[in-house]
Amino acid sequence: MTDLTHHAELEASVPATPPDAPDEPRRLSIRSLTQAPELLVFVFLAALCIALALAESRFVTEINLQNIGRQTSVLLVLSAGVLFVLLVGGIDLSIGGMLAFTSVIAAHFADSTSPGIAFAIAIAATTGVGLLNGLLIGIAGFSPIVVTLAVGQVLTGVALLITSNGPIQPLNPHYTDLATSLVGPIPTIVIAALVCLVAAHLLLSRTRLGRYVYAVGGNEMAAWLAGVPTAKTKIAGYTICGAFAGAAGVLASSRIGSGDASLGPTEMLTAFAAVFLGGVGFGTGRGTVLGVALGALTLGVMSDGIDLLQLDSDWQSIVSGVLIVVAIAFQVLPGKLRRGVAT
Amino acid sequence: MSSAAVEARGIAKAFSGVAALRGVDLVLAEGEARGLIGENGAGKSTLINVISGALRPDAGTLRIGGEAVTLRSPQAALEEGIGTVHQQNWLVPTLTAIQNVELGREPVTRGLHLLARGSMPQSRAALEFVGLLQAAHREVASLSLAERQLIAIARAYARGSRVMIFDEPTAALSPVETHYLFEVIERLRAAGTALLYVTHRLDELAHVVDRVTVMRAGEVVGELPSSAHERELVERMAGSERVEHEIEVVGERRRSTVRDRAAEPVLRGSRLSDADGAFHDVDLEVHAGEVVALVGLPDSGAVALARTLAGAGRLRDGELRLNGAALSARTPARAVRAGIGYLAGDRKLRGVLPNFSVRDTVTLSALPTLSPTGFLRRRGERRMARELSGRCEVRAASLSMPITALSGGNQQKALFARTLATSPRVIICEDPTAGVDPGGREALYGLLAGACEHGAAVVLCSSDLREVSLISDRAVVFWRGRIVSELGRDQLSVSALMEAQFNQGPGSARTAMPTAS
Q1: Chain A to chain B, count of Cβ pairs less than 8 Å apart?
Q2: Spatial contact of A217 and A282, defined as CB atoms under 8 Å apart
Q3: Whole-model pTM?
Q4: Is B391 found in the same domain as B472?
Q5: Do residue B404 and residue A16 have CB atoms under 8 angstroms apart?
Q6: Considering the domain boundaries, does residue B44 fall inside one?
Q7: B301-322: pLDDT as tens digits
Q8: b/e code A209-227 from CB counts within 10 Å (16+ = b)
Q9: Which of A9, A13, A20, A202 to probe the B interface (max B CBs under 10 A)?
Q10: Domain membership of residue B20 as a residue range
Q11: Which of B312, B331, B360 sits opposite A211 (nearest CB)?
């Protein structure tokens, strides 16, 4: 919630014709931290990086940074997709199944065609599945949780069927190029992920569709009455999520060099963690690609740090869970305290 | 004489600084039947919410049977002997009728507190009292609205309630159901239960109550016998001297801009009926430059028609024409594209997008024309938002601040600007100036008048009858889904509008009476 009293004072002293100044620069304060969750994650990420750099000399090395980039790419793309469905007020539990499905499809077609074409086929297939999710939810009005859970089950099942003889390992050595090659010092897979993020950001901030996505998430009824095509917008949200999950699946498959039906569950939960950490609300229509990227990066750096410090990797999920609660507390509690609500 | 069943003294209640009740006294004797009437916003609902435990008053005392009480919840009020029956009652749809009657005080086995088999005799007696024993074991989901009301009555009766509050119980009932409800109410009276009966339908009062308390602007302004003439009741509710005074303050009455009544109307609907059965066989014409008000009680179909014209309802029958061409406005998006602008009522639920800035709020409906390629044009958006929010007198420090940071009145002005942003040929508005200060009101009326001068047609739904009488060219009056009368420009006044709304009940004994006093 925004702070009403703060602005009410401004409002009273202002002439009727408002000046249209560009967004005024924000000062760093507790208030700005609670109003811009991106800033909160950024501060935390920076602190984490400084602490790791001081504690472990291997943290700031080219190899380790490339490693973080490779590890986080899949998560970055997957959580950018999740952002779209959360913004339209939904949820997508099929992205885990999509990940397994795409990796298997890509690996399956890699030797009969070429890796590039196989990747395109795989992404197109999950985009279609996303469209199906969208139609069932936006037009038929099914519950998002039930539909996407069921679709995810089916996709995992299909992936298992295709790989009943074990994971498919394409013979074409170029299959893993995406993950292993470098452009200058930067891994190609990181560049691919960045391209996806930039595309997501431009879609949300520069297109009419993006504005509609936020409108549906903010108040679906009000958006509909104002002339927003809410059903189409929701369908688009799920379709885009499918496309991004497909892209994430291709990256993951290239990284492990195979099509593997066991991909999915862990990645899906981590993606949701990244999104919530990045300040995306559940059913509030608030959230940005920047926040999500910072959330994903934080989890990636944390996982790398746990490896470097040779801690038990089980700590990762404990710390990320605690972080999410802390992040949400930062967003919710100040408003409650101000209003004196103790419930 | 014994002590009063309910004695409320000096009850005051304010919502975010706005007084809804200003020291109200209400004393209900044992076994008395009392009506409670008043305009929207007069404070009726707040008062009964206080008495029924749903709201805590800021000041004042409440005595039940002579004892001072503090009610913390409707449940607590029920235990104290005050039952409430609403238009729609909170029952658990998946439980049976008798389970709902017993809800919260189920018979349990001793020791383990498991639910006992069977039901309590007083629950069955209560269902028999309201004539619903045969449905005791049916799920509430399968029962009608009227039957659910009877269950709510039975629930209170089973607990031995001495006072029963009815909040517009007949608003959604058919005549037969209403008749039966009155029979049950008669039985309650015979059993010695005191009644507090809130209604918009003045013709019902004589059937149900002895005396009527009239409220206006948070105060009790009179107590009359229920045999009083409706005109008298209406005048008490409206406070006619004050009305005339306020019209002078708020401003000039809008000059009529209707050019040619013989010309093809901008909007023409013939034999319109909607899918929900809210209105039937309605004919409506709105000419260029004309403001037509649709007035009527909350369930009369007036608002439903406005929503349907805006694409937010579903037509079952009839034909709509816009400038002579057939119009199919099945969604608000299509209606906007066709040239119909809609300002929905209930700002918080149906208007404001809480995650949007002022600028994005104003431009939302106009995006298809503002960004034809699908890519946003920020400069164009800024220009449009600046221009329109200036004209609508939106007071905001910056157009990029969140819309929720504005006061309610300024949010409303921003929504008004959004409606004008598409340059609609037909403007449909529900309560367009809700929460807007007098200066802002004048600006918005001026904008509506300006749109009319440019040939727009306006359909106005407003619970503010002063507003209706100020800016409309004529008012079409709805009763139970049909148009029953029409008031021309010269006949528009608050009391005339109110009388027309209240005084239309077909089959009501009162309408047969001559209205001249």
Answers
A1: 141
A2: no
A3: 0.78
A4: yes
A5: no
A6: yes
A7: 999 999 999 999 999 999 999 9
A8: bbbbbbbbbbbbebbbbbb
A9: A20
A10: 6-228
A11: B360
